[in-house]
Every structure is written in C-alpha cells, then in structure tokens.
Amino acid sequence: MAFLFLCDAVRGAVFAETFSKLLPDVSFAMAADEVAPEDVRFIMTWNPPPDLHRYPNLRAVFCIGAGVDQFAGSVMPPGVKLVRMVDDGITRMVAEYVAMAVLALHRNLHHYIDHQRRHHWMAVTPQVQAAARRVSIMGTGVLGQAALDKLKVFGFDLSGWNRSQHSIEGVSCYNGADGLREMLYRTDILVCLLPLNAGTAGILNGDLFAALPGGASLVHAGRGRQLDVDALMSSLDTGRLSGAFLDVTDPEPLPADHRLWKHPRVVITPHVAAITQADSAALTTVNNIKRLISGRDPIGIVDPSALSWDGSRTAAEHIKAI
Ligand code: OXD
C-alpha cells in the first residue's frame, strides 16, 4: 500500500518522516515512477493529476490546500474520494490573517500607509471604537468560525453569513440571499472566506458593494474569481468602499503592471493567509488515512460534482441567486 506525495520536496520530507513513524505499513513515494501504479492507494497533490486512471487501487486524492476549486471539472474515478485539508495549522493562520486585516482596517492603517507615502502627518478621526465597528464574515465554516473567535476578543459587533441556517454564540447569523442583503446593510468591514463555486464566482460585485454602508471596507481571502475588480476599483474611487485587503487575485501571481497594485488604499498579500504547515498537515493526513483504512470517511471529504461551474453567471445575478 503506497502514498504518493506530488507536492514540494521540503514538505514531502516532513511527511515522509511522519509516515515512517506513524504509518510504517504505508510506503511513501515522491514521484510516480518510484512506485508501481497498482500499489498507490492515496495521492496528495495541489492540482488534479491528469492520469488518475493509472492507479487501479486508488482510494483517495488529498488536496494539500484548504480550497479545492482547482478540481472543478475533473472527474474522480469511481470510488475515489476527494479530500481537502482541514487542518489546525491552516485554520490558525487564516484566523490570524483575518484578525490582522480587520484590525488594520479598523485602525485605518490603509489610510496611514497612503498618508505615509505622501509624507502627511494626519490623524483619521474620530477613531471608531471596536464595539461600534460591525464586522461580518461571509463563510462561517471552520475557518470563518475560527476568525470570529479571534475577533470576539476585541469586542467587535460580529455577524456571519452562510448558505444555510446556523447559529454561533455572540454572532448575528444570516443565511440565504435576503439574509446576505440584511447583513451587508449593517457591515463596516466585510470579510470573504467563501469557497469558489457556481454560487460564489463573481459574488463580490457592484451590487454587493452598493448594499454596504458608504466607507465600508473589504478583506478578501476567498478566491480571486469571486471579486469583480472593476467594481472594487470604482467603489474605492467613489468612496463607497474605503479600503481593501486582498490575499487572493485573478490571476495569481498578479501581473506586475496590474492596476490593483497601484491603488493607494488596497493592500495586497500574495495568497499567504494560510500556508499548509507540513508538520500538522502530515498528522492530519495520517489520521485521515487511518480512518479510511478502518472503513470510516476521512475529515474534509468533498463532493466533486458540487465544484463544477461554468463561470457564466453574471455578477449581478449573484446576490439574488445565492
Ligand atoms: C488555499 C490554501 O486553499 O492556501 O487557499 O490552502
């Protein structure tokens, strides 16, 4: 029985060591030609490998990241499970990133960065207090809930939106299209942590920004294709939005001459809100393999058919459609 690791060698070395200690019966390979195809039971990868049918005994494809939208349109052979990374290391990093960006926007860092570039010593007043700052998260799964937990400590007025009904202590919860609109009306800092799929591609659009109070700001750590860049730029220029932290763009890397780089109130980070940490991810994967071997479902199982989307929905349709 073999595990084929098709990601970078540095993390592979950590996985190899963890597997040799905790799963000695599973052999570990870092290249397809190191292992007989019929021995391969598990593959770890970021992009969907084109040749999954080479492995007649494959049982699961593990994605090394939290998001699996890159698998949209790819078909798993019958009986093969697709599993995304649900790992404490990723959850902790995303929660930290959201806390950092929300605090920065709350304390007007985006304005001060702009002032500094122009050598302006100028306070942004009055400084709104945290209890009066309404922070809302779109996507209240594991990552969203961890981010909300971090933000609670500062006393923000918190809301969360999800496709389905849910409840989180200390957070006003919304769902469905009407719920989203209701939440947006009372949001000063909007955080997007949604996965990319048919319902969320292009969701951060002019309609959505128009539903926010003037001067609101955005933290985007979902996926680049969820953001309508033209709508963002014009909302920033008219003052509808006051600033944005973007960890994801379309395309990635963002080309050096892209206009987003130059906007004075946009802060860009290169998709680093979370970087899968090999030590904890290896333990998470070992645990999932043990579950599979004992006949249980792994944690993080994804329905690949829910990922398919053709990207054809227009931006304006979203706020109604979700
Ligand atoms: C992601 C990741 O899915 O970095 O964005 O894990």
Automatic annotation (TrEMBL):
InterPro entries: D-isomer_DH_NAD-bd (IPR006140), NAD(P)-bd_dom_sf (IPR036291). The keyword DNA damage does not apply. Coiled coil: none annotated. Keywords: NAD, Oxidoreductase, Pyruvate. CDD domains: GDH_like_2. Pfam families: 2-Hacid_dh_C (PF02826). GO terms for molecular function: NAD binding; oxidoreductase activity. Residues 100-273 form the D-isomer specific 2-hydroxyacid dehydrogenase NAD-binding domain. This is Glyoxylate/hydroxypyruvate reductase A. It comes from Rhizobium leguminosarum.
